[in-house]
Amino acid sequence: MPANDVTTHGPRSVEIYDTTLRDGAQLEGISLTVDDKLRIAEQLDWLGVHYIEAGWPGSNPKDDEAFRRIPHELKLQTSKVVAFGSTRRVKGKVDSDDTLRHLLEANTEAVCIVGKSWDYHVTEALQTTLDEGAAMVADSVEFLRANGRQVLSPISAATSPSPSTSTMTPAPASPTRSPECAAAPPRCKGRSTGTASAPGTATSPRSSRTSR
User: Fold this and answer.
1) Looking at residue 125, what DSSP letter applies?
2) DSSP character at residue 197
3) DSSP state for residue 22 in the 8-state scheme
């Protein structure tokens, strides 16, 4: 096969997922106003960023205000705004989970939920079983997709007690059976599709993108 055949070197394109407005805003000495968030989002859209993580709805008044204002004040041409949150609680129900409710109330096309992908985090941090850890992710993905949201999930590298590398993978269409870490039992040990890039930005292959 020819050496320059792109099929031998990975995806032909990637989608950029930017976390400046949430993760980046947590750096020491930075305090973004809602107006700051909107102006930054405009610039990220101009740069061609595909996904903009605008904050964690329900976590603070500024993020809630930003999600209320974005649909009315911004005319984004390229970017899709993402609301960030987590899976349902241990032994909880998706239809009564406050975090999932806030994600839906943010009224974004896409949401991102963080779930535990390492068995150590499930058994030690969550204090639950691996089956329940997997069910927390699968149930949450299924619930959000049923409500018309595209669902993405960051997968942390599970190679040490303090992993620092992560990638963004779209949640699978069938969340209960998938090779992806987002819905498999959390023993993925850092498997991913895509690679981490500059701080505040992650990438994922377009070929694995999950539509709404």
Assistant:
1) I
2) -
3) T
Instruction: Count CA atoms closer than 13 A to 54's CA, side-chain side.
Output: 36
Specify the pLDDT at position 81: 98
Domain formed by 9-208, architecture: Alpha-Beta Barrel (3.20)
pLDDT > 90 fraction of the chain, expressed in percent and rounded: 57
Domain parsing of the chain, residue ranges = 9-208
Distance between CA atoms of residues 156 and 114, nearest Å: 9
CA 139 to chain centre: 16
For range 125-139, the mean pLDDT: 93
What is the reported pTM? 0.71
**Cross-strand partners of 156:** 166
Distance CA 159, CA 136 (A): 22
> Which residue bears the tokens 């850092």?
190
Residues 205 and 14: beta-carbon distance below 8 Å: yes
